[in-house]
From TrEMBL:
Organism the protein comes from: Erythrobacter ramosus
PANTHER family xref list: UPF0699 TRANSMEMBRANE PROTEIN YDBS (PTHR34473), UPF0699 TRANSMEMBRANE PROTEIN YDBT (PTHR34473:SF2)
Pfam families named among the record's database cross-references: bPH_2
Domain of life: Bacteria
Keywords attached to this entry: Membrane, Transmembrane, Transmembrane helix
Coiled-coil boundaries: none
Transmembrane segments annotated in the record for this chain: 12-35, 41-61, 179-202, 232-260, 366-384, 390-408
Protein name per UniProt: Membrane protein
Domain YdbS-like PH stretches: 63-139, 413-482
Length: 519
């Protein structure tokens, strides 16, 4: 076991800068308020300096008291100023090791090393911050020891032996032109949320009371009178211009967010697994071992689906910062997704895949109950509202019935010798694929109506994700459960991750599939 090590000393400077950033808004609020009278600017400066000094002291103490130790079987992190805590994570429990470089740390050549254990959230382990070289060294070491490869010598922890990562084959890359197109489909009005959050600081730096309801009512009345005097044609033109402006703002916001998040998006495949790099300001570098991929999700959007664009995600215990599966191809055609699916040891459904639709009884129940709410609402409207308005909820009932009927066409599932498939959604269809060898449980769930009508929802246990088949006829659900349970019983999960995914998929399970398909 190596000696305990500390993170990069320059982390203390980053902590001091963070304290300064936190002190800016309170200092500005004091400077533009009546607190302190004529000396409020000196008071604001003093508050800022004290905050920086205290923050720097705590940052230095935290750096001194945080150590990490590279052991033969685990990584141990000890931290705490007054009460100490020590956490050890075995290498075999580490799903992924990712490097994240936010804008400020990047200026100093630092990265945050995140050890994803599959526990999620704050339960994952992170070291902030190491140098680029130290971060890459640590990732290589964890990867080698986790996969039971040759041990890496760390006799000198300050200068570890560094093995360069495999360059690998580029499977997918976002060009600037493709990234711009992607951004146009990522319509967002998040800018208005930011402006709304900034309003709370307006009354601190000006005499405007943004929370005065009478102020806004008077302004709207004045503007309404002005608009009313312009005439119907000008009002219509102004409304259209306002909607167009909203669309432009939403598309521009989507482009900016997409560029910041996915600039330089590259997915490579090497002998060690998949490596994804992306980000303009915050650069992330994630490595995903191929045998840790539990399943695939192919999704799309309401508009992009009509243009043939899809997104591919890997389901595993480790997840992205957003708590979602790792996105490996955010904006691609199906012919671009197919090689990635194959490299992960999966295969897309083809003409030989025997799809099964959801129960027609479930379709009928969905249509009836989905429309019943609007039909019931039409009764009081017909009694108490002006004549003819009851047609509005009745029309909504017809639309709901049509939508549920159409959605049933896209609700399908299938199982073959090695994989299970599920598809749902008609505005933006989502398709799930999982290998039977990675399933660890199967559950048949029925509500009161489903029990009476003879269908069920099948939940398949998948590490790091969910896999659901809706509206499966009960007899078919039981046959599917028996088939999957037989696969689970015949699988040695202690050796599953040691076998290549492609080899695992080649193992015959035709008897199980035939039993299910015969029902």
């Amino acid at each position: 076991m190596s000696e305990p090590q500390r993170t990069a000393p320059i982390s203390v400077i980053l902590g001091a800068i963070g304290s300064l950033r936190s002190a800016i808004f309170p200092a500005i609020a004091i400077a533009f308020s009546g607190i302190g009278g004529d000396g409020r600017f000196l008071l604001a400066l003093g508050v800022g300096l004290v905050s920086v000094v205290i923050g720097t002291a705590f940052s230095y103490a935290h750096w001194r008291r945080l150590t990490y130790t590279i052991g033969e079987t685990d990584i141990r992190v000890e931290s705490g100023l007054f009460s100490r805590s020590a956490r050890s994570v075995p290498y075999e429990r580490i799903q992924d090791v990712s490097l994240e470089a936010k804008p400020l740390p990047r200026l100093f050549g630092l990265v945050a090393v995140k050890f994803e254990t599959g526990a999620g959230g704050a339960d994952d382990l992170a070291l902030q911050y190491l140098t680029d070289a130290q971060g890459e060294d640590l990732r290589q070491l964890v990867r080698e020891r986790r996969d039971d490869e040759a041990a890496v010598s760390v006799a000198d922890p300050q200068a570890p032996v560094r093995s360069e990562p495999d360059a690998g084959e580029v499977l997918y890359a976002l060009t600037p032109a493709r990234l711009l197109t992607f951004g146009l489909f990522e319509f967002s009005l998040a800018v208005f949320a930011v402006l709304g959050g900034a309003l709370q600081y307006v009354d601190n730096v000006s005499d405007i009371d943004v929370w005065n309801v009478d102020l806004w009512r008077g302004w709207l009345t004045e503007q309404g009178s002005t608009v009313a005097s312009l005439g119907l044609f000008v009002q219509a033109a102004a409304a259209i211009a306002g909607l167009l402006g909203l669309v432009v703002i939403g598309m521009a916001t989507g482009v900016v967010r997409t560029v910041l998040r996915d600039w330089g998006f590259t997915l490579t495949r090497s002998a060690r697994g998949f490596r994804r790099q992306r980000g303009l300001l915050t650069r992330t570098d994630v490595v995903m071992p191929a045998h840790r991929v539990q399943g695939l999700v192919i999704g799309t959007g309401l508009v992009r689906y009509r243009f043939g664009w899809h997104g591919l995600s890997f389901v595993s215990l480790a997840q992205d910062a957003e708590g979602e599966s790792h996105i490996v191809a955010p904006f691609a055609k199906m012919e671009e997704i197919a090689p990635i699916v194959s490299a992960a040891g999966f295969r897309l459904p083809d003409d030989s895949t025997q799809w099964h639709r959801a129960s027609t009884r479930q379709r009928t129940d969905t249509v009836v109950f989905g429309s019943a709410v609007f039909v019931l609402a039409a009764i009081p409207v017909a009694i108490f509202a002006p004549f003819g308005l009851f047609l509005v909820p009745l029309g909504a009932a017809v639309l709901a019935a049509g939508a549920n009927l159409y959605a049933w066409e896209f609700r399908r599932h299938a199982i073959d010798a090695s994989q299970v498939y599920a598809s749902h959604g008609f505005f933006s269809p989502t398709r799930q694929i999982a290998t039977r060898l990675k399933l660890h449980s199967v559950e048949i769930a029925q509500g009161p109506i489903a029990r009476l009508r003879g269908y069920a929802t099948v939940h398949l246990g998948l590490a790091g994700g969910t896999f659901t088949m809706q509206g499966v006829p009960l007899a078919e659900a039981r046959a599917l459960r028996a088939s999957v349970l037989e696969t689970i019983a015949s699988t040695d999960f202690s050796r599953l991750d040691q076998a290549p995914q492609n080899q695992a998929l080649s193992e015959p399970h035709s008897e199980f599939s035939e039993n299910f398909l015969a029902t």
